[in-house]
Amino acid sequence: VVVPYLLSHRTRLLSQLEDAAAAGSSSNSMQNGPSSVRPTANGTYSSSSSKAKTPEGLRLIATVIDTAILRAMLLQPDSGALLRLLQQTNFVDLEDGESVLTSAGRYAELAALYQYNRRHTEGLRLLQQLSQHPGSLEVPADGAAVDLKGLPGVWAAVRYLTAMQPQEVDLIQEHAGWILEADPEAGLEALLAMNPPLDIDIVKPLLEAHAPDFTAVYLESALDLGLATPREVHSELLLIYLHMALEEEREGVKSSVAHARQLSLTDLLVSRPHQPLKLFPDDLTQWGPTPRTSQTGGTSSDTRPGTSGRTSGDTQGGTSGDTQAPQDGTSGDTQDGTPGDTGAAAAAAAAASRKPAAVQLPSRPASPLLTPTLLQTPSRRDAYQRLRELVYSSDYIDPEYVLSKLGQGQLLEIRALMLERLGRHREALSVYIHDLNRTDLAEQYCDRFYEAGLAAAVGVGPVVTIGDQDGTSGDTASDAAGDSAAAAAPSQGSASAASGDRQQQNNAVAAAAG
Description:
- The chain has 514 residues and is an all-alpha fold.
- The protein contains 23 helices and four strands.
- The strands form two sheets. A two-stranded antiparallel ribbon has the order 1-2. Strands 3-4 form a two-stranded antiparallel sheet.
- A hairpin with a 5-residue loop joins β1 and β2.
- α6 packs antiparallel against α7 (151-162).
- The protein is elongated, with a radius of gyration of 32 Å.
- It starts with a helix and ends with a helix.
């Protein structure tokens, strides 16, 4: 009976507050002394002084009523009404509310009260304690706070962080660290969803300190979301991809699957709608990762409080949405050693087939950039594929630098692509034919230049000549083909060539093979 009575007066009082604020009460009324405030028969308030009719006086009454409502609700079974009250406009006395909520173990409501009153240090520390160290609480958690142990508490901290302002960057940095360590996906979501976004130079040190294996995921996501430019991230992505690709070459399919699973988190993060949510949404499915919109218009999630909070479903890139990458960089396989999901199995098949049958790259455009469209192509799986696309297409990669990072016999196809960009065509063909024993790749190499030259001849597009970084070009395709053909025996030409130019290119392959 008490709570409905107080709530009815609260509704009328809020209406009076809105009217008083709109009317702009005179500031002189604030000089009046204490007043005697009492409700009238129709539920409004009268006073011996005009102070009760000012916004300040009405807020004082609202504080009394809201604090009384809080105390009364704590005496009733938890229905979620108190949590909803504290996440909207309220006038609960902070000191009194903090005391009674702590004594009752109602920490979720206390976190909401802290957030509303901009006591962010206390609010975030409380969520950290609820998530990571619930046993250290003096009073056991009760109500909604019971469900904040583990990942639900981490994601509550994510929602708290994303509602903060950039000027509170010190506090954001302090708490982003433990969130990243507890769940890299949650930490990345927080860092990417800030509005306005955090500067990339602030985020990278956080990742290097707390989740270094996920730096590439952040850089890819920032690029896809327009938070960073290719010039800012390509050089760093190059080094990360190189390290991963060399590891894949040493360790084989298992490493490729692990990297594909980890890097697929980019597509999941980019596909999610980055919209602000309440600290504790009414829909319990939103207590975990933000449900992403599916391709059919619905949502797909398994994010109940107390669960792992993993989102399931297909990502935009066709990979499995259940892509929580393990913190230690392992593949996340099941105990019997089998891949953890069909997405990982698909990645394994792709990785296994990559080395013996490399995918033919398209001709480089006149002004190649690793655009978001290229980043979201289905071919982007493991680190090797990403490295291959990056080094071939980016204007911000120095081929000589890439070659300097490759040891003898390492990543031979990448070496050939860099030689191609430098215009060192004979050396590139030699790698394909002698080192890789892949005449088909050598033929594809020549086809790329033949088709580009043919397009230029009929005015369709520019001639594709891949030169040095200073703008000087190396051997053109026709130079390499012609010179190699001159060195080859006449019998090495292809009898089935469609034209004289095509004949020269086939002879070039044969000459390199000889």
